[in-house]
Each structure stands twice: as C-alpha cells, then as structure tokens.
C-alpha cells in the first residue's frame, strides 16, 4: 500500500476517533461490529466502576452477517461475561443492523424494563467515535452522552480480523455518512475540516468505495 493512501487513512482515523470520557455514567452502550476489542474495553470500563450496567447492541451487520452464527450483541456479551462482568449486568439488544438502530432499539429495550437513564457511555470501534456521538445526540438527545473507545494508534489497529483495506473502506463510508446523514435526520451535523475532506476524496479516487451508499 502506498504512503499517500496510509497518510490519508490516518487523517480519517484521527478525525473519527473522538473521546469524551467520564468517571461514571448510568450505563455503557457497546455498539457491535466485527471488531471484538470494544467488548473487551467495555468490560474493563464496567469493572472500573464506570457504569451500573451494560447494553450490548447489535444484530447482524454488513460484515458480521457473513462471519458469525450469532448476533454481534451476543458475541460481545460472551466476551464481557468471560472478562468478569456479571451476566445480570448485561442487557442484550440483538436486532439492530445499523448505528441509528443501536440507540433506537436500546432506548426501547430500557423503556420496556422501566429503566430510566440520564447519562450513557458509548464504546465503539475507535474509528466510529465521531459518528457514534453524532448519532446518539440525534437519536436519543435526552441522554448526556460520553464516549470512551479503545485507545489504539492507527498503525496498530489493523489485525487479521480487522484488515487494513476493509478498515479504510469503512472509514470512507462513515465519512460519507457524516456528510449526508444530518439532512436525513439520522445524525447531528458535524464540521469537517478541509484536510479530512481532501483525504476522503483522495481515498475514493483510489477505489475505497465498497461501503459508500
């Protein structure tokens, strides 16, 4: 992979990685994906006392529908229980297929259990952070949202299970959604610097278009 592609990808990665940590929130919402590290990180945060319970959210997404036999939320819950999170502190929302539904369906789940929350701590893929927060603020604005995702440098993020080529294509798709989803009512608007737009357009020109809509 040429250096210009890597440089542009890092620009997107650094832009999408957003943090707003907190000492405590009412609950943690983990946004499911093919990357298992958010589940591990959510377990760590819970065991540090950062929240009272966890919602593992996610059914089968565009990648996991071809990879796993069980929904993302159930896979995440397995990991969190193995890490020491009590089973009765994990609620499972296993029907959502996109980021907006992660919040919509979790809101519905908690309402069905008559659980009221005022603050939430999002745990997502590192490079989904900015879109996760923008989505939460639109879909569930009554909650004060924080976000704390795995602090992994761009160079160390790709793995066998999270290949670099796919990761770049996903970031390009998420950048497009930040640009188009506010007008569709899915997310709050996000200001995008020129250098991020330039990196996005360059990567599209290089063929990273798999997850564009």
From TrEMBL:
Residues 38-146 form the DUF218 domain. It comes from the Bacteria. Pfam families: DUF218. InterPro entries: Cell_Envelope_Assoc, DUF218, Rossmann-like_a/b/a_fold. One of its GO terms (cellular component) is plasma membrane. This is DUF218 domain-containing protein. It comes from Weissella cibaria.
């Amino acid at each position: 992979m040429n250096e210009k592609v890597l440089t542009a990808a890092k620009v997107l990665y650094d832009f999408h990685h957003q943090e707003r940590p907190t000492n405590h929130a009412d609950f943690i919402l983990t946004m499911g994906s093919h990357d298992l590290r958010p589940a591990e990180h959510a377990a760590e945060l819970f065991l540090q006392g950062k929240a009272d319970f966890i919602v593992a959210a996610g059914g089968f997404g565009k990648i996991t529908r071809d990879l796993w036999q069980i929904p993302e939320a159930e896979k995440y819950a397995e990991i969190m229980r193995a890490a020491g999170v009590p089973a009765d502190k994990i609620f499972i929302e296993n029907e959502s297929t996109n980021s907006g539904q992660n919040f919509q369906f979790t809101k519905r789940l908690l309402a069905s259990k008559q659980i009221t929350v005022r603050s939430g701590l999002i745990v997502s893929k590192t490079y989904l952070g900015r879109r996760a927060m923008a989505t939460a603020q639109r879909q569930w604005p009554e909650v004060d949202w924080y976000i704390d995702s795995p602090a992994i440098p761009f160079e160390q993020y790709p793995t066998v299970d999270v290949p670099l080529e796919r990761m770049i294509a996903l970031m390009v798709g998420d950048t497009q959604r930040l640009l188009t989803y506010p007008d569709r009512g899915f997310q709050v608007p996000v200001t995008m610097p020129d250098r991020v737009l330039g990196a996005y357009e360059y990567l599209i020109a290089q063929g990273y278009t798999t997850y564009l809509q």
